[in-house]
Amino acid sequence: MKNRLYFVSNHPKAQAHAFQAIENEQDKIGYYTLPDQDITPILEYADKIPQSVESIVIIGIGGSSLGAKAIYEFVKPVNDLKRTLYLFESTDPIDINTTLKQIDLDTTHFIVISKSGTTVETFAIYKYVYSLLPKISAYTFITDQGSPLDKYAQEVNANVLYVPQNVGGRFSVLSSVGLLPLVLCGIDVTSLLEGAKRIKESFFEQGYMQEPLLKKAVFYAKNHARYNINCIFAYSESLKYFCEWYVQLWGESLGKHQRHSAFHVGLTPIGLIGPKDQHSFLQLLTDGTRDKSITFIKIENFEEGMTIPDISLPHLESLDILNSISFDTLINMQCDSVIESLDHEGDIPIDSIMLPKVDAYTIGSLIYYYELLTSLVAELMDVNAYDQPGVENGKVILKKKLQKTKR
């Protein structure tokens, strides 16, 4: 994984401060240690799931589902996976019914994930599914130790795994939250963690990734009022759900009151997929308000070997320039052309990330890169990256509304 910055950001004191701050918080923030964890218990538990199980279903929302979905959808096109992953992420009744029609309850294992153990959406769906399949062995629960869900699981003698201590939901994909469903589908989670560990070591041991991460974080934080929208422009359909994961990570971590002032700050995340969004969003990026920074993500080698045939079409001879070009080359030329055009504007901050290939190691690297970047930017913007008081307020109001319906 390579990161090239097209903007200049030289603030050595701010970079040193940010590095020291997140190096210090490794003792109390749990996600930093996940690349080094012993996953033997997760692998051993996964081996106990019957071979007759054909589908894995996550019942969870936000940080409980987005990370696993992002990884699964990234590697699925290039892997022959042994099980299919489905997700219940919404209380939309049409979506629930549509997903249920795609699975056979008798050959499905459900993973119910709620860090707090009281997530309304998750338990609304779980209650409905449980009414259809009241066989507790068909469920695994993942939650915080001691949560109401943990107590329920113990009461009904169900299988329960725990979210590691001090790992927030949106930072939990490399824990049991993401690893269990992924390994059950046949994804190489050892390689996934190795990719994350490579980025961790490179950053904390003054490797090649330290400087671009620090410079990028400082630029975002120092210019957050001017460039308050950050776009990922990913040139691969396989990164669509990674963009969804990034939107939650970035939005929920950085949209806060500052710790030492009354100011509201934040960076609004937008996920785009190239080249199709060149035909929807690029015009706004090029000629719209100068309030956006853009990160392009490319894949160096798609390993598909597909080439445009050497065919000339009547009246379309001008398009013979496409002949014999590989699709790998074409999509990256499209990306590079957009980068060059935006760089020419001179006042649009851009950078690019080159991923070597589509595999578990690569997506593990990218996920950990963005988790580190989020922590760095939060520190420099003087916000707590790991809480979500705005979300919690909405949950309280919803529960009050639900209580009123029972009166």
UniProtKB/TrEMBL annotation:
Q: Could you tell me what this protein does?
A: Catalyzes the reversible isomerization of glucose-6-phosphate to fructose-6-phosphate.
Please provide the record's keywords in A-Z order: Cytoplasm, Gluconeogenesis, Glycolysis, Isomerase
Per the UniProt record, the lineage of the source organism begins with: Bacteria, Pseudomonadati, Campylobacterota, Epsilonproteobacteria, Campylobacterales
Q: Which reaction does it catalyse?
A: alpha-D-glucose 6-phosphate = beta-D-fructose 6-phosphate
The protein's matches in SUPFAM superfamilies, at most eight in alphabetical order, are given as: SIS domain (SSF53697)
The EC number(s) attached to this protein equal 5.3.1.9
**What's this protein's family per the entry?**
Belongs to the GPI family.
The encoding gene = pgi
> What is its pathway?
Carbohydrate degradation; glycolysis; D-glyceraldehyde 3-phosphate and glycerone phosphate from D-glucose: step 2/4; Carbohydrate biosynthesis; gluconeogenesis
So where's the catalytic machinery, residue-wise? 252, 279, 395
Q: Which locations, inside or outside the cell, does it occupy?
A: Cytoplasm
Entries under HAMAP family matching the protein: G6P_isomerase (MF_00473)
Give GO MF terms, alphabetically. glucose-6-phosphate isomerase activity
Q: Which InterPro entries match?
A: G6P_Isomerase (IPR001672), Phosphoglucose_isomerase_CS (IPR018189), SIS_dom_sf (IPR046348), SIS_PGI_1 (IPR035476), SIS_PGI_2 (IPR035482)
Q: Which CDD domains match?
A: SIS_PGI_1, SIS_PGI_2
**What is the official name of this protein in its record?**
Glucose-6-phosphate isomerase
